Amino acid sequence: MIVFEILRKINRYIKQSKKSKAGIYLSPVRRIERVYPLLNERVCAMTFDDGPSALPPNPPRSNATLASASSQMDNMSNGVGSLGLTETLMTILEKYNAVGTFDCIGGTQENYPDKRGKLHTAKWGGTAHDHYPDFERDQFAGILNQPELGKSVLQRGHEMANHGGRHVIFGPMRLIYDSRTSLSSLESVLEDLTLFHNFAHEQFNHTATFSRPPHYIDGIKGGLNAYDVYAMMGYQYMAASFDGGGWKPSKGQYNEDVEAMVSPLRKSLDADANTLNGQIIFQKDGCNMSLQTPIADALEPQLQILKEKGYKVIGVGELVKRSPFEDYGEGHAHFEDARTLINAGFIVAYKNNSFQPQRILTFGELVAMTTPKDLFVALTALKTKQLRVDFDYAKWHVDKIEAAFVKVRTTHPYYWMFKYAKKQGYLGQYMDQWDIDDSMDAHRCIQYLDHVLKAHQVELNTDQQQERARLCSELMKMATPSLKRVEILPLLKATLESAKLL
Ligand SMILES: [Zn+2]
């Protein structure tokens, strides 16, 4: 177990260094661990991985109020009797007016042949694969096996994310999961996520927009990673910042395991009541490594503590809509403009979900900030023929950019953004001479955004002209040769609004 903890620490270190590297380029996909705290209220989110599960909690709960709260869903547990784990968690959440984010799987029954794994280790649910909720009991969990339960998660007002069709890791991970089978390519990861995505869409009319890779394993064979596949799916990478602890192997005593989930939360909030504001708490909708579900008894005291400290637990989607970035939020200059842009699907944040308002704005960034993230979904729809978006829409986008030529190397993260801008007519001829990494002064910014307006044949009325003149003169007052990212926001937003892109 000590070795296991050390490996986890190494893994955490690798993740940290990845995170700082993820702050270099703007990206359609952001890895969202936590968001900037809201100004006048305390909110946090909770994600529940690996369900939905119809099996009852282990050990069973004898809470009479919960049992009687069991609705028509009682029949759904396929003879297992009492309230299933997911229903138990939903019932507790609802008692506290809390919304959960259920990070669901499709089903793990396809993960055979396999051998039973060793309890109290990461392999407890199978050696080559995971089996949820347990080895040989796959049929009790996942939306493919328990569609009514999946539907009820949404009907009861909770959120649902895509945790993989079969909970197979995206790529090999020698460090911890050396004996695991992993998916073999980007296409197979896409196929696995699509299995879940399409089922949820067809059966529940739900369009997933968040995903967390099984076991957080990012790497995909061929030098690719989760960001690549999420860009194609139109997803955000849902991470978490506070560990609810429900995955850990038992300390030996169930009550101790429950307390181990409650006390870190209590201690953190006693030290600083605002500390969880904007955070995402990692929880399980399944067993820990010892085949028990302490979450079923820890959730209520956790919610009680949060309530006492004035917290509201909301869905991750809702949280991110209200406070999209990790380092920039309510109370900061022009934050509302940035929030409008990102919620409308423009690529304005970095991979690590920072906004970095004080960073110098480059030409490449300005072009990226006028690109809709849907472009990436459209491109894949055509390439893979897996149509998650309307085919004509995809074809229109790709036709428009196919013939374009720009002086940006094809492997540059902004390549498609430049192709798009060129074909849209955003780039004046002389702009071909600007370097992608050139910092932008007010003159150049105004020139580029004027081109955006021209490309959309916008005729401004007198009021709009006056407002634009005001915003431009504000920008010209920034005497520095290079603008900061935050300074372009008002004019950028006004431009996209005038062009009817917002
Ligand atoms: Zn999982």
TrEMBL record:
Protein's name in the database: Polysaccharide deacetylase family protein
SUPFAM superfamilies named in the record: Glycoside hydrolase/deacetylase (SSF88713)
InterPro entries: Glyco_hydro/deAcase_b/a-brl, Polysacc_deacetylase_ArnD
Compositional bias segments (type: Polar residues): 61-70
Region (Disordered), start-end ranges: 50-70
Entries under PANTHER family matching the protein: GLYCOSYL TRANSFERASE-RELATED (PTHR10587)
